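Action item from last meeting closed. Structure (159 res):
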């Protein structure tokens, strides 16, 4: 498809007339009409490739453009903490540590009496359990006697 367009432009002509002692320059501008021939805007012919070739090319480009996320500066900055040497920051951190330590210490001190009683109760319970175990062992060993043992003693007493 071709089309023709008409264009109007201005043409300028300059003429110079020289006479002894006098030089005159005249500029004349006249409209001019021209015709331009335009060509059709067709898409360029490209080589055809198969779907498989296009997929292979896409995979290759994806591999080439892939970035190792662990080496990005944004990832590294997420993992490292920035130093803050300001005195106010150090003071706030110190006060925070003191407050946490005091809170934990207060909980331990308030529960110290209870903890002491529980430890003593556990020790007493273990002591009682040991005594019961020893008593059971003694009673079990005393009740289990060989059958003939008692008769032998009686026989020896009679002779």
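Sequence:
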């Amino acid at each position: 498809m071709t089309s023709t367009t008409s264009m109007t432009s201005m043409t300028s002509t300059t003429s110079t007339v020289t006479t002894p002692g006098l030089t005159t320059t005249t500029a004349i501008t006249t409209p001019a009409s021209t015709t331009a021939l335009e060509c059709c805007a067709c898409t360029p012919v490209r080589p055809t490739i198969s779907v498989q070739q296009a997929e292979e090319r896409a995979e290759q480009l994806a591999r080439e453009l892939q970035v190792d996320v662990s080496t990005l500066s944004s990832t590294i900055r997420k993992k490292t903490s920035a130093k803050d040497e300001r005195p106010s920051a150090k003071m706030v951190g110190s006060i925070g540590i003191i407050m946490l330590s005091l809170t934990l210490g207060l909980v331990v001190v308030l529960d110290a009496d209870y903890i002491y009683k529980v430890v003593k109760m556990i020790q007493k319970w273990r002591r009682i359990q040991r005594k019961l175990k020893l008593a059971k062992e003694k009673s079990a060993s005393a009740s289990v006697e060989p059958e003939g043992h008692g008769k032998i003693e009686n026989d020896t007493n009679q002779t």
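Note appended to the action item: The mean pLDDT is 79.
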